Each structure stands twice: as C-alpha cells, then as structure tokens.
Amino acid sequence: MKLVKTLLWVVAAVALLGGGAYILKNNKAKQEQEVKIVASKIEEIVVNTAKLEYKDLSADFTVNGNFEPIQEMTFPSEMSGRIVNVLVNEGDYVRVGQTLATIKKDAIEIDMTQAQNNLQNAIIDNQRYENAFKTGGVTKQQVDNSRLQLKNARAAVEAQGVRVRDTNVKATIAGVVNKRHIEPGSVVSAGTQMFDIVNVSRLKLKVAVNESEIVNLRVGQNVKVTASVLPEDAFVGRITFIAPKADASLNFPVEIEVSNNNKLKAGMFGTAVFSSSDDATATKAIAVIPSAAFVNGVSSNTVFAVENGVAKLTKVVSGRVIGNYVEILSGLKVGAEVVTSGQINLSDGEKVKVVK
C-alpha cells in the first residue's frame, strides 16, 4: 500500500513537471512570434518625402537691419579752460570748420605774448652772434647755440598759436548737433565731451547676410531699401562694405549706403531687398528641395535620398536659399526623392515607408 502511494506521488510530480515545461515552451514560442511581429513592424521607418523639382521662384531675399548715420562724432575738447560762448544749439546744422564754442584764452594770450618776446630776443642774439662769428669774435659752438635757441623760440610761438586757435572749438565734420553737453561757464578739460554731431544726409543700413547668400553680393551693387515706418516709400541703396569674415552667428555684416530725403532717421528699422536681377519681379526655374530635407541644417549639405524603399545618406552641393527651398547644384537628379521628416530615426541604408 505504501509503495502504491509513493508511485502515485512520483507520477503526479512527473505530470506537473511535464505540464510546466510544455507551458514554458508555448510561452517562449509566443514571445518569439511577438518579437518577430514587432521587429517586422519597425524594420520600415515611416517618413515624409519630397522630390527634387524645378520651381519658378524669385531669387530675391530680404534682410532686416537698422539705419545709422553716415558719420557721427562725440566732439571732445582739446584743452582745459572755461567755456565763454556756445554758438550752436541742438538741432542746428554745422559745417566743417564752423566755430561751435569758445574757451577763455586770457592766460594763453599772455603766454603767447611772452613767447613772442622771447622770439624777438632770440632773433637779436642770433644776429649778434652771426656778425661776431664773421670777425672771429665768437666760436662756432656759440653760433650754433644761438641758432638752436632761435629755433626753440619759434617753436614755442607756434605751440602757443595752436593753443590760441584751440580756444575756438570748430567742427571737423558736417552734420546736425544731436546733443549739447556744455553751457557758458562750464569748465572743461582735455577730452571732455562737448557735442554729439551726426551726419544724416546719407545713412548706412547695417544688415547680416548668411553664407549661402553672401556669394551673390558685391560692393557697388544697387539694393532696394524700405523702412517699416514709411511703407509707401522705396529707397535705392548701394552696397559699400561686405565683411571678409563672418561674425559669431556665422553671418556676414553688410553696409548699404542710402541717400536721405529727410524722412529717414538714424535708428529706424529698415529692410534690404536683394535681387539677382534688375527686374525685382523676375522669376527663374530652379532645381530645389525643401530646406527641411537637410540633416542638421542646410550647411551640412547632407540629405537622405530614398531609392527602392531604402534611405541613403547623400552629399549634395547646395546653392541659394529661397524662402523654404534650397537650390541643388549637384548630387541629386531631378525627380530624386528626399526625406523631409523622420531623419532623426534614420541611419544610412535603413528601410523606410513613405507617407504621402
């Protein structure tokens, strides 16, 4: 009886073990099947695409900037003294060489008189030594010393003359007095700021152009310019400067000179309209793809081209950026399909599923 019970327990244990193994085997097979299904689903990465095609696009592009004076100067004093007269007010137009203010010069004129007296004495002494040298009364060294003293006396008179002239503060550029920092009675020292003068007869529109567009610009090129506060007016500017080196944002500073019709003010917001044609409305068929197709930006010159359901990392040579499109110079044939979204999940040679 005891033996029979033992046999029953053994049979039950074997049955349990066999059943567990069968279940585990079925679960494993099921999991493997599920993995295969998931793997088959992610083998093809879903992407959007666009084709390289010719489009009639205007090659014009616009860049914004600010107008600045063609010339401006914070006019400093060149000497110390007390201001006697201020001859101009804020808003006055001044010419080159016009006297703006005068500085008290009594002490300087006294120094000038003394220098002139010293010069007269030096002339008389030198003449005496020159005559005595002819008769052998003095040495060559004494004559040379008298000549040197004469030169120094003349230099001292010239120096005092410069100081006297500097008491008349004169404009070195033509323009409008934008700010006056002094009043009669003010005491100034060398370098004291006295006037801000700006020349706005012409203005400079300063803009920054990206690397894909800068190659199409040249100094002397005419540019259409508009101002945000004067939407009805259009101005003709001329490129006067193109920086040979990009700034920290990888753009190239460009300056455009614009004639002022007395409507524009320095500091206003302006827009430069660059065109590759004399006709601002001209269009041209250009082979382009969306800028979104580029991996890590247009500057990478890299896209994923789709061929037979496979994404291939492809190098291209890009040209102008026109709105949301980029000109393709080489690397792709017309009709080539490129990925425009989903690149972040792609690697070279992966299968893709195109969603139209």
From TrEMBL:
One Pfam family it belongs to: BSH_RND
Domain named CusB-like beta-barrel: residues: 205-276
UniProt KW keywords: Coiled coil
An example Gene Ontology CC term for this record: efflux pump complex
Domain Multidrug resistance protein MdtA-like barrel-sandwich hybrid: 77-198
Ranges in a coiled coil: 105-132
YknX-like C-terminal permuted SH3-like domain span: 288-354
GO molecular function: efflux transmembrane transporter activity
Family: Belongs to the membrane fusion protein (MFP) (TC 8.A.1) family.
Protein name as it appears in the record: Efflux RND transporter periplasmic adaptor subunit
